[in-house]
Amino acid sequence: MKIIKSTKIIKSVQDLCIQACCVLPVDVVKSYEKAKNIEINSIAIEVLDQLIDNASLGKKEMIPVCQDTGMVIVFVTMGNQVQIQGMSITDAINHGVAKGYEKGFLRKSVVKDPLIRENTNDNTPAIIYYNMVLGDVLTIDVLPKGFGSENMSAIKMLKPTEGIQAVKDFLINTVKMAGPNACPPFFIGIGLGGTMDKAAVLSKKALLRKANSIHENKFYQKLESDLLEEVNKISFGPAGFKGKTTAFNVFIEAYPTHIAGFPMAITIGCHSYRHKGITL
Predict the structure, then answer these.
(1) What pTM was computed for the model?
(2) Which of 22, 43, 103, 193 is most buried per CB count within 10 Å?
(3) What pLDDT score does 125 carry?
(4) Residue 17 pLDDT class (50, 70, 90 cuts)
């Protein structure tokens, strides 16, 4: 049995929130640089230069790379041989989020109710998903999700007979609707299968992957590549000023589903591709 104190979880989540909001992963910055090398539109190149400079400044000064520091989504993988000592893991995560947003001077954007809209003043509660496994592992992945792009995300119940073409059509229509409002170039997460709610979670989980990573399944590897090619034909380009790069990546997570169903969810992620994880 592995015993982990809740105070350690609080401190870890606090640090993850600050790091995720202020320090973009190296692979994300490399995506900016790669896109800059293939662009021919001078404005697109300038935008990508600004993204690179912004990432550098955020890391150097430990300030958010975007003013929208998001609503925190947390993915937890917890083994059956892990015991949390102190408060519950859910309470510990929320305490960590609150401390992180206070210590990091991150914008607090969460309201208590979608209609009453009174700010909680600490960016909690987080949205937490748990995956219970065998063993003594405890991993926590934090995904601060900005709502400029979240508002352009979508879900649809496709017909099972429609196949890949329906996936392409729904994705292209969603990206066109998002346009420059969602801050391209995008990182796009797609969830296929399960139920309506499961597909939505899968689309978020897909955004935990490293930039330019390749799907382990060859079928989905090709589908991701094909979909990315189709998205980039739209040519919105960086910040919507036209260019070759409308999206950096399309990531897919799939799950078994009912014979009569074909749920598909799309989470649009902006160019500030923020996520950070830790294993305790």
Answers:
(1) 0.95
(2) 22
(3) 98
(4) very high
Three-state SS sequence of the chain: CEEEEHHHHHHHHHHHHHHHHHCCCHHHHHHHHHHHHHCCCHHHHHHHHHHHHHHHHHHHHCCCCCCCCCEEEEEEEEECCEEEECCCHHHHHHHHHHHHHHHCCCCCCCECCCCCCCECCCCCCCEEEEEEECCCCEEEEEEEECHHHHCCCEEEEECHHHHHHHHHHHHHHHHHHHHHHHCCCEEEEEEEEECHHHHHHHHHHHHHCCCCCCCCCHHHHHHHHHHHHHHHCCCCCHHHCCCCCCEEEEEEEEEEECCCCEEEEEEEECCCCCCEEEEC
Domains plus CATH for the chain? 2-20+65-145 (3.30.360), 148-275 (no CATH)
Please name the residues in contact with 87: beta carbons below 8 A apart, sequence gap of 6 or more.
6, 95
